[in-house]
Amino acid sequence: MIKSLSRVYEQFRKLPGIGSKTALRLAYHIIDMSGEEVAELARALVEAKKETRICARCFNLSDEELCEICRRPERDGRTICVVEQPQDVAALERGGKYGGVYHVLRGVLSPIDGVSPEQLKLRELVGRINDGNVREVIVATNSDIEGDATAVYIARLLKPLGVEVTRIAHGLPVGGDLEYADGLTLSLALENRRKM
Amino acid sequence: MIKSLSRVYEQFRKLPGIGSKTALRLAYHIIDMSGEEVAELARALVEAKKETRICARCFNLSDEELCEICRRPERDGRTICVVEQPQDVAALERGGKYGGVYHVLRGVLSPIDGVSPEQLKLRELVGRINDGNVREVIVATNSDIEGDATAVYIARLLKPLGVEVTRIAHGLPVGGDLEYADGLTLSLALENRRKM
Question: Which residues of B touch A43 (CB under 8 A)?
Answer without folding.
Answer: 42
